[in-house]
Write a structure and sequence with these properties.
By secondary structure, the protein is α+β, with helices and mostly antiparallel strands. A 4-stranded antiparallel β-sheet has the order 4-11-9-6, with helices on one face. It has a 4-stranded antiparallel β-sheet with strand order 8-7-5-10, with no helix packed on it. A 3-stranded antiparallel β-sheet has the order 1-2-3, with helices on one face. A hairpin with a 2-residue loop joins strand 2 and strand 3.
Length: about 160
């Protein structure tokens, strides 16, 4: 397998939920691991360049019950309740550092412009602010959980 074939394999794997792929042939071994939005080739191959590329079989996406549960809660909102959603894809953090207090707790009052969480995207920490004045009714995401664009994060009961 040559570099061009490895790059093509990485491109194919990028669109799947496969997190690790290994290929071994004629004494050479290639391991590709996906983590933190990147693939890391584990070893440089030294194989015959005329060897055909390996076939890749895509696996179905795993179920995401936490996201579905959050969507269901969003559909059951009370009359004065609103949802704060993720403005980007990334990792949700409730506090500015692992040993710090969470920005907000259930039952706490928030003001417009108050930071309620951080979403890490591409190694950047993005502070997410409340647009509403109200009480935090529910936090729909666990700390350090990956979130998708538009995913419900908090339910706020507006004052």
């Amino acid at each position: 397998m040559n570099i061009k074939e490895i790059k093509e394999l990485v491109r194919i794997l990028d669109g799947t939920d496969i997190v690790e792929f290994s290929f071994e042939s004629e004494g050479s071994k290639v391991i590709i691991k996906k983590g933190y939005n990147q693939f890391i080739p584990a070893a440089a191959p030294t194989v015959n360049p005329v060897m055909p590329p390996a076939a890749v079989v895509a696996q179905p996406a795993p179920s995401v019950p936490a996201t579905l549960a959050a969507e269901e809660k969003k559909d059951e909102l009370g009359p004065n309740q609103v949802v704060i959603t993720a403005p980007m894809v990334g990792t949700f953090y409730q506090a500015p550092s692992p040993d710090a207090e969470a920005y907000v707790q259930v039952g706490q009052t928030v003001e417009p412009g108050q930071v309620v969480c951080i979403i890490e995207a591409m190694k950047l920490m993005n502070e997410i602010e409340s647009e509403y004045r109200g009480k935090v009714v529910d936090i729909l995401v666990s700390n350090a959980q990956p979130v998708e664009y538009g995913q419900p994060l908090f339910i706020i009961e507006k004052f």
